[in-house]
Amino acid sequence: MRQRFTPLFRLWHWLMAFSIFGLLFTVLLRETFLDKKEMAAIVTQKLASFGVALGSDQAIAVAKAIRAPMWEWHYIFALFLGLSIVLRLWLMMTKEAKMPLLKLLAAEGMPERMKAGVHLLLCLSIALLTVTGTFQNPSQKSP
User: Fold this and answer.
1) 3-class SS letters over the chain
2) Rounded to an integer, what distance in angstroms lies between the CA atom of residue 143 and that of residue 60?
């Protein structure tokens, strides 16, 4: 028999998925298409074709300004992730969701233990990413 999930549990699930995919998307953009050094080189090259000279520090400042709105979206997705974590904790306190560690301890049979173990690792990874992102040194945060 398939397990039935409440509408609130489904909302939590999709809120979590939406926020994690959004966070991954913004990080991937930052590290690929919107890399400040590559963007600075493109800006410098394009402006040079118009006869405008721009120093590397100035070009990097322009590149950071271009990608700043994307980084704001990263913070918005992080807020959704925080909200989904709070919702998950509330679901566990109201017994609508089981704690992943208790699911692992109660699992019978290897397939169920593996599934519960992977779920626990995923939860711990998300918690670790949330903590490290929240308590990152403000001087290291750059748009």
Assistant:
1) CCCCCCHHHHHHHHHHHHHHHHHHHHHHHHHCCCCHHHHHHHHHHHHHHCCCCCCHHHHHHHHHHHHHHHHHHHHHHHHHHHHHHHHHHHHHHCCCCCCHHHHHHHCCCHHHHHHHHHHHHHHHHHHHHHHHHHCCCHHHCCC
2) 11
Amino acid residing at 32: T
Chunked mean pLDDT (size 10), the chain, 143 residues: 81 94 93 90 92 91 91 92 92 88 89 92 91 71 54
Asked whether the CA dihedral 64, 66, 72, 75 is positive or negative, the reply is negative
